[in-house]
Amino acid sequence: MKVYFVSGLAADRRVFKHIKLPHGYEIIHIDWIAPAKNESLEEYSSRLSEKIVPGEPFALLGLSMGGMIVSEISRQYAAKKKTKPVITILLSSVPVSRHLPKHFKLARSLRLYKFIPVKFLKSASFLNRFFSSDNKEDKAILHQVIKDSDPGFIRWAMQAVLEWKNEVLPQPLVHIHGTKDRILPARYTKPTHLIYKASHLMVMGRANEINLLLSEALLSVSRT
Question: Which of 55, 67, 136, 166 could form a disulfide with 90 if both were Cys (CB 3.0 to 4.6 A apart)?
């Protein structure tokens, strides 16, 4: 079965380098595409879902903003009565817009995304505060991933996330979250699994624990 992976804001498939799936599951990366002018997260998700092979059973996995994307794709497939993903998996993310932190809502009302310099979000000080990793190689990869990211895409994505409106929980859902996530604190959402002292970038630093949970989730689905 294909499992479609969507990475987080300003990231790409390199952040999934430590993720392994059980035998019989194939990772298919859905890479970011250029957003259209004033495109909503809902519209963007619909276009991104065109990369999914129709008529085949599949699962979705999204990291951070990618989790919001796959939640949106799952909702749209259900609304259109198309073949739904057999399971939707979120890492360091939220499945519905009401689970976004309160400061996100304040930023939306004040339209702060128009004023925050993208250079600040890509700065070493910001990365060290929110995306810490004990592994020097992983840290170097992360810094390079952020450096390679497109400022125009980041600017669009900030607005799209803040204006996203979805209250439909994907079903079935596996939501893995770290207790030390500073970007999307766990207290604002309702994860199905918590990883103690894991940060927002646990996909790199705590991959072994995530891989065990992914294996359990995917194999349980295959038995139903």
Answer: 67
